[in-house]
Amino acid sequence: MDYFLTEEQKMIQDLAWQIAQEKVKPVAAHHDETGEFPWEIMKILADAGFFGLYIEDEYGGAGCGVFELVLATEQLSRACGGIAVCYAGSALGTFPIILFGSEKQKEHYLPDLASGKKLAAFGLTEANAGSDAAAMETTAVRDGDSYILNGTKQWITNGGEAEIYTVVAMTDRAKGSRGASAFILERGMEGFDFGKKENKMGIRASATRELVFQDCRVPKENLLDREGSGFAVAMKTLDQARPGVGAQALGIAQGALDEALSYAHSRVQFGKPISSFQAIQHMLADMATQIEAARALIYAVSKMIDSGAKRFSKVSAMAKLMASDVAMKVTTDAVQIFGGYGYMKDYPVEKMMRDAKITQIYEGTNQIQRNVIAGKLIRELASAQKT
Ligand code: COS
Known about the structure:
The protein has about 375 residues and is an alpha+beta fold. It has three domains: about 5-120, Butyryl-Coa Dehydrogenase, subunit A, domain 1 (Orthogonal Bundle); about 120-230, Butyryl-CoA Dehydrogenase, subunit A, domain 2 (Beta Barrel); about 230-380, Butyryl-CoA Dehydrogenase, subunit A, domain 3, CATH 1.20.140.10. Helices cover about 55% and strands about 15% of the residues. It has ten helices and ten strands. The strands form three sheets. A four-stranded mixed beta sheet has the order 1-4-5-8. Strands 2-3-7-6 form a four-stranded antiparallel beta sheet, covered by helices on one side. It has a two-stranded antiparallel ribbon with strand order 9-10. A hairpin with a 2-residue loop joins strand 9 and strand 10 (about 270-275). The radius of gyration is 21 Å and the shape is globular. The model has no long low-confidence stretch (mean pLDDT about 100). The structure holds coenzyme a persulfide.
């Protein structure tokens, strides 16, 4: 489908595709197998200016937006969902600074993030605060000109590899979600450590670790926005980032369709390529249709965000929800089309199926996305009835 991309957007898409095919695809299985962090790819993406796409030009970025981030993430994910999330995870960690940073914080942190010299990560989840993000137990207590952080964040993408961390902690637990505050932390701060690297089912190229704070002293200048706004900072960050998870899912699904189509065309059974059988054709047709529908939604939502829309929680959740469910379905069908070969690690589709699964879980499970969507629908109805 033609999405009428500008010349610049086409260039970003083409370059991301080229990097994905020439640089990412050849090393995807290696990083999946070893779990080694793909620094060599991060360097290529940094040199190509990809980390600056979603950062304003006055801070060294390209001044584009979520849509361009989505275009890049989609193409990279076609080759490897794990490597793509190392890139997209840095955007997630950077969004709180872009959205809520003071001028001084932006000037201090964004240039190195835009150039890709430093990666970012976002710390919200804890062992007892997953879907129920407001139940977080990490505390930040004011002490003179600093806050003292104590607690552990869990399953943090880019944990240990990133240098900049945007972290949410409770400054007043009695106030619940209104008692959370967001901070910018740097790797190497005293009292800030990392847990072991997690051994995951998929997206194995990415690093997932705990962030451990033990009397970690953070200067008060590193508070984002204001005390008590941390939950809103986190929610707005997720609203901004969820189309990116959608793009990751979309790219994985497209990659699986690419593989399934070419395999179906070359695999001969009963004397004919299996692509000549209607059973396979209908699967391919459904996969392609679902992918295009997900793409149309993700592109529309990201353009809406970039156009300055004020309310997009609902559609952002829809984009993530739909694309990740499509990715799970499409990658499962791709394995089916490959038959026994699809189950073997010698072929790429089993990895795509493993990589797809997380997109239904992280940045809010799809059950939470449905809660967000339904909640907004009901509120919209109530407010329409009032007027
Ligand atoms: N933007 C701005 N503010 C928001 C918001 C949003 N998208 N969503 C909620 N808020 C505000 C609410 O308006 C409310 O503010 P007030 O106290 O001023 O009224 C406050 O936040 C609490 O909202 P709510 O009562 O809806 O919060 P809940 O504790 O019920 O939780 C869910 C809401 C479940 C939606 C939230 O916890 C969530 O998104 N969980 C999933 C977290 C997640 O994605 N984790 C993945 C890890 S990060 S990679």
